[in-house]
Design brief:
With 134 residues, the protein is mainly α. The chain is 70% helix and 9% strand. The chain has helices at 7-44, 66-104, 108-119, 126-130, and strands at 52-57, 60-65. Strands 1-2 form a two-stranded antiparallel ribbon. Helix 1 runs antiparallel to helix 2 (66-104).
Length: 134
């Protein structure tokens, strides 16, 4: 923390950064759920609509058939995609607010220094940052 930056301003800046991180984590989580829905939809495509399957609804395992579950999973996937898009838009807005706040309070150099420290480690790839295991 720079000595010329008041503690309250710095704390607000850190809080805003944590909010951005929370958005990023939620987006990543929802993208994982979307991918899981894709896997289920793809595996169910070739199955007979009358084939028995099970679905977890609110912690309860329910017996249905593929014809009933398929459309519900597709609908859930579409809702997840819409949520991801909304969160990405909110993330961009919050990021703009953060950058404006940082610029107004002369925190940009410190923010870019922190980002530079995170990017300095060449061992960490983009896939590892996403939390995806290959």
């Amino acid at each position: 923390m720079s000595r010329s930056v008041p503690v309250e301003v710095y704390n607000n800046f850190q809080r805003m950064k944590k909010n951005l991180e929370a958005y990023s984590q939620k987006i990543t989580e929802l993208e994982g759920e979307r991918d899981e829905h894709d896997l289920v939809i793809n595996s169910m495509e070739d199955m007979d609509d009358s084939r028995r399957c099970f679905r977890l609804i609110g912690g309860v395992l329910v017996e249905r058939n593929v014809g009933q579950v398929g459309p519900a999973i597709s609908e859930n996937k579409e809702r997840i995609i819409a949520s991801i898009q909304a969160l990405k838009e909110q993330y961009k807005q919050e990021e703009q607010v953060l950058m404006k706040y940082a610029k107004e309070n002369n925190l940009l150099q410190e923010a870019s220094t922190n980002e530079g420290e995170q990017k300095a480690d060449p061992e960490i790839t983009d896939e590892q940052k996403k939390g995806v295991l290959l």
